[in-house]
C-alpha cells in the first residue's frame, strides 16, 4: 500500500491572486492592476471585435481640451457574444463611458469591466469580472 | 445465430451497452464560478509531493508567484528573465498554450463521447483533443509533440482517468513558468450525482522545471443548448497594444 504524503493546498489562497476578467492569451495579473479603477468618458475612435481580445479606442478630452487616446481591452469576443455584444454594439463616433482596471505600466490602457452608452445604460447584459461565466 | 451476433456487433449494440455503463459526459461545460470544495477522495488520490494551485478560472498569479510550485534553478531564472511584452508580438499572440494551462481557463468546452474515444472541443484557441479509450498506449517517445498532447483514458469506476504526454513545451501559469515537452499530466473527471457539474483534478509533473508536482481542482457547470463559439485568433490585436499612447493629440 502506498503511503501518501499530505498534499498541500498552496499558499495560493493567500497569495495576491488577481480575480480579473476571463483571461485569454496574456496574463491579466501581469498587465493590469486590480486596485487601479479607471472610469473615462470619450468618443469612440474605433472598435475591434476579434479574438483574443476586442479593443475599444476612445478619445478622451480633458478640461483643458487635450485629447488622450485610451485603449480598453475587452474579454474575448467569444465571451462577449454571450453577454449580448456584437461587432456593431459600439459604433465609431458615439460617446460612451467605460470602467475597468488600469494598466500596471501607467499607459492609457485598461481592461474593460463594463461600458455604458451616452444615456448611462449598460452595454450588453452583464459586466465582466469575477463572476464571468465565459 | 452467429450471423445475428455479427449483425448486432456491426450495428453497435455492444457499443451502446458498454457506453451505457459509463457516465455520460456529453455536453457543453462552462467553468462553474462558485465555491465547490473538492471531494476528499479526489484530493487523496493525488500523488505525493503535490501542491494544489488556486489559479483555476479567472484567478491568476502575479509575476514570480507560482502558488507553491517549487521551481528548479533553471526554471526560476527563466521566470525572472521573462518579459510579458515579449508575448505581445504578431508572432506569439495567437500561439495557443498547451492543455496544461488552457484546461483550467474560463472558456467553455464540449464533450462528444463514444465507447472508443471522447472528443473535447475547447473554445479557447479552437483546440480539439481526442481521448483514446480503445486500450492503445502512448506513441514512441520520438513521436511528434503537440499542444494538446496524446491522451489515453479509461474508466475507474465512475471516474474518467486521462493520461497525457507528448505535450509540446508551453506555459504552466502564464507568467513566465513554462513546462518542457517532457511534462506528464493525469486528469480524473467525475460527474456530480445530479449530472449538472463536472469535477476534475488535473495533476502534472515535469522534473526539468519543477521540484514538486502541481495539480488543480476544476469544476464546470453543464449548460444545455449552448455550443462553443469560434475563436479564430487574430494577431493584429497586437497592433492595438503597440499603438497605446502613440495617437495622442490636442
Task: Walk me through what this model shows.
The complex is a heterodimer of chains A (134) and B (250). With 134 residues, chain A is mainly β. Chain A has a domain at 26-116: OB fold (Dihydrolipoamide Acetyltransferase, E2P). Chain A has two helices and six strands. Chain A has helices at residues 28-31, 77-80, and strands at residues 8-9, 32-48, 55-61, 67-73, 95-103, 109-116. In chain A, strands 2-3-4-6-5 form a five-stranded mixed beta barrel. In chain A, a hairpin with a 5-residue loop joins strand 3 (55-61) and strand 4. Chain A is globular. Chain A starts with 7 loop residues before the first strand and ends in an 18-residue tail after the last strand. The relative contact order of chain A is 0.22. Residues 1-16 and 18-24 of chain A have low confidence and may be disordered. By secondary structure, chain B is of the alpha+beta class. Chain B has one domain (23-242): Beta Barrel (Lipocalin), CATH 2.40.128. Chain B is built from six helices and twelve strands. In chain B, a hairpin with a 2-residue loop joins strand 6 and strand 7 (159-165). The N and C termini of chain B lie far apart (89 Å). Strand 1 (8-9) of chain A pairs parallel with strand 2 of chain B, so a sheet runs across the interface.
